[in-house]
Input
Amino acid sequence: MPERVDRDGTPAYRFLGVEMTRREAAFLGLGVVFLFVIPDIAGLSDSLQLSVIHQGLLFGFAAVGLNLLLRHTKLTSFGHAAFFGTGAYATAVLARYAGVQSVGLLLLGAIAAATVMAAIIGALSLRHTGLYFALLTLAFGQLLYAIALGQSALGGSDGLPIRPGPANQPLLFGTAFSPDVYQVLTYYLTVVVILIGLFVMYRITQSPFRNALDAIGQERTRARFIGLPVRRYVWAAFVISGIYGGVAGGLYAVVRQYVRPEGTLFFLRSGDILFMAILGGFRTLVGPLIGGVVLIFLQDVGQDVTQYYEFLTGVVLLILVYGFPRGIVGSLRSGGIVNTRLGELRREPSVLSTWGRTAVQSIERKVTAALTSLRIILFGVD
Amino acid sequence: MAVSATAALVQTLNGIQFGFILFMIASGLTVILGILDVLNLAHGELFSLGAYTAIGVFGFIIGVIGPPGGGVVGTVVFVLAVIAAVLVTAAILLPVGTIFEAVFLRQIYDRDQVYQLVLTFALLLILLDVKKFIWGDSSIRTDAVYSAINTIPTSELVGLNYPTYNVFVILVGSAVVAGLFWFFERTKTGRIIRATAIDREMATAIGVSTDRVFTLVFALGAFLAGFAGAMAVPPTSATLEMGTNPLVLSFVVIVIGGLGSLRGAFVGALLVGVIRSWMITLYPPGEIAAPFAIMALILLVKPEGLFGTWGETA
Output
């Protein structure tokens, strides 16, 4: 049962190690209910598709895993699609070649494969930090992509169906369902897995392990001096974050019933996963998940509206980098940029024109500076 | 598997030719990485922008001077015109690189490195659609340069049937390599850039404007990428996705050679190029995976790359 505790004067409740105020609990409850009713809401409108949101949640879940590295150890992995793809391909291979039909077993297989893969890639790339680490994870991700493309057993560029023939679909609870029901049921399964995953991640972020990771992220040498086994801890964090990717990939394969290298292992997917974390706000727990849904939704809508949807995504990322570096969740929080600006606007509406003027001015300044540098490079200083 | 000596030689030459193209891309990337500490994900797009631009420039130049005239003089004029076209293309990319650095990247040097990745990735996506907007979805190509240069006899003189254009790429590539090393070893600007790579603060203290060096280095990288694009496009066609593969291979080259090392980039590029092209005859599915396998091997044996970091020597 929830136990009452005191947090900085406000009453809070602790349940299963999760501590929150009444307001936060209400938000959490609303969020969970919202996740569960999405299939019903999606039925109301054509532009809102369950499969799109589902895919967003799955990639977002991988981003939650990546966030463990990004937020605490300050390591930027640019190859998380490797684990997503490993999970997806492990599921497909198990279902196709080993004849495994149960979704639970398939997911366990995905977890095992992703763990092994993360352990290997982590051991090879974690000697380095910074951009070198990003570059290495990217290269390893592309290696897996190349393997999936080159091996005919893995279907090459055509990909791999989970099971051949009319009985394509894996079994849930030992029964086969009709496609519609299957879609909704796998969605609920995803939501349950995500909730468990978020809970585990929350417990990790409340543990001494997280403090150790923070220390490592701030200053490795000092962390080693105070006796932290830096290499081993970072490696553990890497494997955990890889497992999140593997679970997401396994679920993706179960839902889609088809795995393609382009959709799971390609390095643009790694980029997507990283940007979901930043778009949602990588200093927060649920930010990456929200970022995942928003990015996938945006890409889907963009594809319908214009053939230049990559441009659209690029512009959104630019706005993000310059305007809202703390991401969606980070900006909406109290003290975030949105709240501050809204407060200013409420106090003094004329501030809007000042903002417009400063924006134009700063763009002007930057263009002039660019032209000056160009002139100096071409003609030298006169 | 028996492979004839001629086939092996042809594959090796193909590999060297690809290696030179790769070097031009990777060298810009590695110098940017070594000095600005920025991993430019949009570098492959600069390469493909160069390829697209080159098709237009080639068309214009051939329109002006006409097809190669007979005799030695006509051929020489044509080859020089092609080289001029490549240089023009690369020069068109100079302002692109400058704007990249001065307008976009400059704002976020003091932020977390992850924002650089987002920014350069955003620029990658934007450039991708800009190309789609200007040149359309389908691939475009120019045959004139490739076929015209191939009529010049080179390898036929030693009894080998090998496209002259590839020999041309190897020659021009060697000139670029020599030029780059000369630039960084002998010229004042090159030394200033290297000094900035070794110690940014010290360079500032003795009066080097690091801001200007940053812009210059980025423009140089764009120049080289455009050069590579112009050299690479005549035998094939320019496609929207052509930037991805060279970009990722350049990463492999950088890891093999050592972060920011020009010499390492040269050795790495040739290694990757040759091994990749051998794989095409020996074991085709391994073509894509082989460079990564070498990379993993080198990481295990020598984690800092073959030549370590850059600065003290070019």
Q: What stands out?
A: Residues 71-104 of chain B form the longest helix (34 residues). Chain B touches chain A through 60 residues (CB under 8 Å).
